[in-house]
Amino acid sequence: MSVARRDYNDQVASYNKKVKRFPGALVAGITGFDQKEYFKADPRSGQAPAVDFGGK
């Protein structure tokens, strides 16, 4: 998951740069494209869930 999150955030960073710089900013303003948010994992996502298989 961390690899996918990093890849996604790298693409968001690239997209956001293009939206902020000329001529991308001009086109983005006309077409309504905005900067995107980075993916932030829930702090609890690093913890494994408790599983009970009904053992004695």
Automatic annotation (TrEMBL):
Q: What is the predominant subcellular site recorded for this chain?
A: membrane
| TM region(s), chain numbering | none
User: Subcellular location, in the record's words?
Assistant: Membrane
The name this protein goes by in its record: LemA family protein
Q: Which SUPFAM superfamilies match?
A: LemA-like (SSF140478)
Q: How does it sit in the membrane?
A: Single-pass membrane protein
State the source organism's domain of life: Bacteria
Q: Which InterPro entries match?
A: LemA-like_dom_sf, MamQ_LemA
Family of this protein: Belongs to the LemA family.
Query: Does the record carry Membrane as a key word?
Result: yes
Name the coiled-coil region(s). none
Keyword Transmembrane helix among record annotations: yes
Entry keyword set: Membrane, Transmembrane, Transmembrane helix
A GO CC annotation recorded here is: membrane
